[in-house]
Structure formats: C-alpha cells, structure tokens
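OP here, attaching both records as promised.
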Amino acid sequence: MYEPQVNDYVRWVTELGQVHEGWVYFKADSVEKKRGWKKPSRYITIEIATKPRKQCDLTTFLHKRIHVCLCCYESNWHELTFIKRRVSKQDDTNPDEISYGAYKKGSL
C-alpha cells in the first residue's frame, strides 16, 4: 500500500468516483493509543489550490498565499495514487512541465 509523504503529488479517487489532485501538504504523525482515550485518526492534507493574498503585512502571516486543502484520513489512503514528487513546499514549478527524474537528480 502507498504511504503518502509531504511533497508528493497524488490523485485521490474516492468511493463515489470524485477525483481530486494536489500536493500532500501535511502528514500527521502516528500517535500511540492511551488508555481511556480514543486513538486519533492519522490524516494528510492535500493542497488542491492556492491563490495570492491581497496586499498584507507578511510579518503577521506565515504564508504569502491562501491554501485550499482537503483532509484524507488513513482509512482512505488506499484510494491514493502517487504521481510525482517535488523538492519542497516553496517549489512553484508547474508539475506538468517537469519530470520526476529531473527532481530526483536535483538538476533544477
């Protein structure tokens, strides 16, 4: 089974046939079960869109862009398909223009 990682570009086809594509932006760590507590579900967030922020003071905001993300819980990870990987979250390269091999070699 595919184990998603941050900076992977994935396609998620849900049980209802909906197709979502985007970058894995966050992956929750696994947490040990504590007696008397419900074990938290692991999830990833998939960034499906971004848009620029209006002119603002960047010292008060962590991000220059507004991110639109979906939550995908571990029970749905079997519905994910790995497409490619990027170098980092700051990489703005269009994923359709660059091959996975170029990223892997670090030639960008």
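Record two, same layout:
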Amino acid sequence: MTRAVDLLKNRFGVSQLYKHDIKQDDEIILTVYWHPLTIAEREAIQKKSSSEDVNDYALQMMIEKAIDKNGSRLFQDGDKASLRREIEASVLEEIQLAMVNAGADKEVKQAKADLKS
C-alpha cells in the first residue's frame, strides 16, 4: 500500500514545474518558470520580507521562485528595489498571481515538455 506522503509528493511535489508567459501585443517578452512553493520556502520568504506587507511578500516570492527554462534564477535579491520602482505593478502582479494560482492552472505537463525540447 502506498503511503499518503508518497502519493502527495508524486502528485504535488516540488518536482512539478509551472510556467507563465508575459506578453505584449501577442509577443512573448519573458517566460517565467517556477516550482511549487513549499511551507519551508514560504517561511523563509516571510523572514526576508521587510514587513507584514502583502505586496512585499509577493515580490520577494517572485524574486525567490522565478527561474528560466534552464533552472537559473531570473531575479537576484538586489533587483528588488528596481522591480519596485521601475516596472509596472500590473506586470509584476501578473507573474505573482500566476505563481499563486499555479496549482489551479495545471500547466505542469506543458512546462516539462518545453524543457525537454
């Protein structure tokens, strides 16, 4: 009999990969990939966030989790100030919402197929 923890890891574990395309006029400007957020990562991000501000947490989550198709981080911790001041809020919110809603979208199979090609 399979253990419950093994079933959950196989179905919802951190090996899952999601993606979201940022588009402008039907042109893909940037594709963001990420693995699911774990409780441990959430706690670490909360500690890095400077306050109880939800916007700060969401931005820190995006900085921590966003990767390219090769698995390299898209943003560095030092990018936070620039992202806050120089990028349209709606673009950042689009990425953050995609990350939060990733489980509902279930783009995992497509993202994995993209990485293999």
